[in-house]
Amino acid sequence: EPPAHCPPDVEQLGRATWTFLHTTAAYYPERPTPIQRANMLSLIRSLPMLYPCSHCGDDFGEDMKNNPPDVSGRVGFSKWLCERHNEVNVKLGKERFDCTKTDDRWKDGPTDGSCG
Ligand code: FAD
Questions:
Q1: Domain 19-107 falls in which CATH fold?
Q2: Which of 18, 34, 55, 93 has the greatest CB tally within 10 Å of its CB?
Q3: Measuring from atom 28 of ligand 1, which residue has the nearest CA?
């Protein structure tokens, strides 16, 4: 783990980006307005072009061609994003995450209260 004042490596950048995306998904409206949907689509669709790990962005863009973003609401979008993250996990030999647990991880915290 490089010191905190160093530029991010691919792992740190990934953790920070997933934190942003999953948290944004967790707080996306249940019933987004057309403008909110359009903004979320723009955010997600711009990642393949802008994400500063180009092979990561390329693969994400390919995956998105087969699995278009579901921006219909919080539940569907959180699930869609969890599945995309799992595609990356599998590619990297990491464990799949249980997509029924995304709210516990990114919004509500565990039921044992250990996160305060
Ligand atoms: P991360 O995968 O960063 O996950 C952070 C935390 O999210 C985990 O600790 C877990 O609590 C939670 N989590 C895990 N899976 C899920 C899920 N499915 N849904 C919800 N929460 C979950 N790295 C590469 O080396 N090659 C790539 O091609 C690549 N592509 C990427 C594409 C994108 C769009 C992004 C955002 C990142 C990419 N990364 C890539 C980075 C990679 O996904 C990881 O972020 C990095 O390897 C650090 O992994 P980590 O084990 O710390 O946990």
A1: Four Helix Bundle (Hemerythrin (Met), subunit A) (1.20.120)
A2: 18
A3: 56
